[in-house]
Amino acid sequence: MQANMSQLYSNRQLIFSDDNNDKESISVIILETFDTSSSYGLYLWPCSPILAQFIWYNRNDFIGKNILEIGAGTSLPGLVAAKIGAQNVVLCDNPKIDQWLSLITETLKMNSMIADRIRIESLDWCDEKSIDTLIKKYFPSNIDIIIGSDIFFHKKDFETIIALLDKLFLNGNSSVKFIGTIERRSRSTMLKLNHLIGIRDSYNEIYLNGEPKPLPANDTYLLNEMCPHIATPNGISPDLCCDRKQLAEMQKFKYMLDNIIGRCPSCYYNLLRILCEMSCSPNQDQFIWPLETLNITRPNENEKVISDDKIRSEWALADYEDPDEEVDEQEENVKKLPSKPIETVHVVSKIRYFLSEKQAQDFIDSCWSVRINFQYAIDILCGSINRGCDVKKLFQYIGLKNTQSPMKIEFIFTNDTYYDQEFQRTFQPSNATMFACDQPVILPHVSRQKCTCM
């Protein structure tokens, strides 16, 4: 180690072996800093060796795979993955973190046997350009598993991190997965994380015999963004079958569409309309019917819990402050809302969607020539390659094979009324007209120029 480096870093050797087999083992040397003025990310937190141990015990699942570690810091999990036989490992962290590049460069020198299989990349998950550069270089074919230890640290960053993971999943192959560990510093941290990625936010609650209702005036802006084809004269919403929560869930998905097909207004707004009709149409029962339902528990969102977890002296830095214990000045002035009892909610987990075959074909035609990162966007939406997409494959992938959505959609294509023997009902798909690729998009709340079609 260089002299000037030794003043900043100390090294630690970690050995991984099976409980009853010391003969099969690996050792990894990592560097860490106790200079807290630089970054807490350059210190070995408890979640890192736990994730590394998981990789070791499940090494057969990582051998020969391409691994991406985000928020890598000391990079112990990624180094273990390389040691046990991962084909390639990409270590990423924020280039704004002082000393990270020098730390990881020195670390690779001390683990020289695996250095040729490790790549170092900059990734600022708040910077779209940084994210797009990484995706262009490694996705969809060069990453199999994304890993991250303790990346859910500051609650204010949770949504940004989830958005990053969503974007990586969307641009990855159909089997890419994320494996991570998180330190439970307080119950409030877990409540927020569950709120963002928990099961209940991805389903629609069932209201038996419910009637369409207008949205409150304060929510019409969200309707205008997500369903721009629905007119809201004087800011007044028509009767709808969706509420603010459902529109907010659609909004989380919309940013992914922005990056894939946003450059072609006709393709983009055609798909947005199909999704909006599914959630908001006041005539839902004419072309949608629930197939499967389940009961989920709704946690108490308003409960504020002060963690009684104590900082563990054996690993915590002397001046470390748990971000969950920091109190915002504005938060101090907010009156605590009365607690709501935990309740069981009946939700839809699978639906049947009767879609016009012509509408579906017109949609795929409007998207056929849209490219993203030298790949056709429709292939990404379809989970296929080399122009292998068609209407049935596309909507089957969106509805049933997409692992990112817990609610499944079974699409039935028809150009006329459809009598369903199972439900003994007649369904009538929407006859909404799709915009052609060479048409400008003119809607009540949006106006866009036509695509440049190939």
TrEMBL record:
<dbReference type="InterPro" id="IPR019410">
    <property type="entry name" value="Methyltransf_16"/>
</dbReference>
<feature type="domain" description="Niemann-Pick C1 N-terminal">
    <location>
        <begin position="208"/>
        <end position="295"/>
    </location>
</feature>
<feature type="domain" description="Niemann-Pick C1 N-terminal">
    <location>
        <begin position="343"/>
        <end position="453"/>
    </location>
</feature>
<dbReference type="Pfam" id="PF10294">
    <property type="entry name" value="Methyltransf_16"/>
</dbReference>
<dbReference type="GO" id="GO:0015918">
    <property type="term" value="P:sterol transport"/>
</dbReference>
<protein>
    <recommendedName>
        <fullName>Niemann-Pick C1 N-terminal domain-containing protein</fullName>
    </recommendedName>
</protein>
<dbReference type="GO" id="GO:0042632">
    <property type="term" value="P:cholesterol homeostasis"/>
</dbReference>
<dbReference type="GO" id="GO:0030299">
    <property type="term" value="P:intestinal cholesterol absorption"/>
</dbReference>
<dbReference type="GO" id="GO:0015485">
    <property type="term" value="F:cholesterol binding"/>
</dbReference>
<dbReference type="InterPro" id="IPR032190">
    <property type="entry name" value="NPC1_N"/>
</dbReference>
<dbReference type="Pfam" id="PF16414">
    <property type="entry name" value="NPC1_N"/>
</dbReference>
<dbReference type="GO" id="GO:0005886">
    <property type="term" value="C:plasma membrane"/>
</dbReference>
<dbReference type="InterPro" id="IPR029063">
    <property type="entry name" value="SAM-dependent_MTases_sf"/>
</dbReference>
